[in-house]
Amino acid sequence: MTSGGAAAGLIGVTGATGQLGGRVARLLADGGVRQRLVVRDPARAPELPDAEVAQAAYGDHAALLDALDGVHTLLLLSATESADRVSLHTATIDAAVAAGVRHIVYTSFAGAAPNATFTFARDHWHTEQHLRAAGVDFTFLRDNLYLDFVPGFVGEDDAIRGPAGDGRVAAVLRDDVAAAAARVLREPTAHAGATYDLTGPTAFTLTEAAAALSEVWGRTIRYEPETLDEAYRSRERYGAPAWEVAGWVTSYAAIAGGELATVSTAVEDLTGRPPTGLHDYLAGLSG
């Protein structure tokens, strides 16, 4: 495989102040790749060798034109969930194309489709369609749910609750997504037009996740299935907007429907090493 960033030209990385973007930026820096970190707050940008910093927010056309000038390949991390998420994505894609970006690598979601059960996966599908029509090369990284989030499913009473039934989820570690993204960014031409489903090595039920957490934490964690109505009622007390509550609930419903159960070899195919599974991840946390 080609080393360094020559094949990609200047790489732009959005979201470098966040968990996934920061991981990707550090991997590229470790590989001696020249990159530009496109962030809303430059004061929070990581200090990395061979990394420039440019300030721009999603949807800010003028700022994005400046920030992306000279960028060949752009990592477009999906924006934080919001009511106008798709319009922010599409406006950012349009600005990138206008700035001369030639290849956009977009972090999408497993099962992205116009009728996906998980409402946020529909947002990703609409973004993918816009990017397909934008006239530049693209690569879609369709992440499964993040394995890192599984411990956070547990409530204060040691229960995981949600309408996931006995469905399985092939959750993937953010470190593995970052490694795959960094590989694609370094050799974008080899991945033009590709869609990669990024998953863990196995798919597990939330009952199995509770058992694994029980073993690691030394106390009983249980999974209590909810109906859709129960799930909506239990989450409405947080006072979140309806679109956000729907996203929370339908992520579990997508598990129940089998939409997140497919296991892919893409992480290993791209990085040369197998992805981390639930038990190894939890063991690492306990260590």
Automatic annotation (TrEMBL):
UniProt cross-references to InterPro entries, sorted A to Z: NAD(P)-bd_dom_sf, NmrA-like, NmrA-type_oxidoreductase
Domain of life assignment: Bacteria
Signal sequence bounds: none
Pfam families reported in the protein's UniProt record: NmrA (PF05368)
Domain NmrA-like: 10-224
Protein name (record): NmrA family protein
Native species: Kribbella flavida (strain DSM 17836 / JCM 10339 / NBRC 14399)
